[in-house]
Amino acid sequence: MSEGRLSQQDRQRIAAGLAAGRGYAEIARSLGRSTSTISREVARNGGPAGYRPGEAQRASVRRARRPKNASTRSAPVPADPYGRDPDAVAEAFEELTTMLAQTGLPQMAANVFACLYVTDSGALTVAELVRQLRVSPASISKAVAFLESQGLVRRERDASSRREQYVLGGDLWYRSLLATAQRNTALAESARRTVAVLGSATPAGARVAEAAEFLDRIGEELVQAVERWWHDRPGHQS
What we know:
By secondary structure, this protein is mostly helical. The chain folds into 3 domains: 58 residues; 82 residues, Arc Repressor Mutant, subunit A; 61 residues. The chain is 64% helix and 5% strand. The protein has a 3-stranded antiparallel beta sheet.
């Protein structure tokens, strides 16, 4: 497979492949590239629906011209005790951040979450996040507040230093999905109150009532699925 940089023609072929509904693996084979190369290229340039070959090419040129010591990208694991390649870790961090942002996370929240996720301890202080992401403490605080509201991060005191740190925790997705289910339930209740005002026999009332029923059903099934996973997870003892 080719190891060089993607050319403008390569990017045009990627865009054509996406427009034709082809998958990353198929596009990669046609270009003689790895699937991960294509997925990273698309992820960092707007995703499948927003990929523009011209903009992607210009962004690539800007990155290539940027002095190494002025790079805004930082590897979350600067000194790796496991012997991992720092450049590979930085690439993985960048890709994860891009994909998280595409799921709807605000960009800074995605940066903080990805940074915590690829840090072996799963916990970082404000100072550590500021140093690694090169942003202000206020930006970190705002991002963490959002992540806390989604059940993705919690605050705790480091027992040795007494400094506040932000932690993922082993029950991260369990807590997050339960929070999602709770929001669905609250939204369903709000929808039912709206139905009472609109009238269930009206077109608008019927539409909102259907939404409330859907949210209730999804919330119930989500809670059941999460609880089953939590009970059946490796290492769980009844």
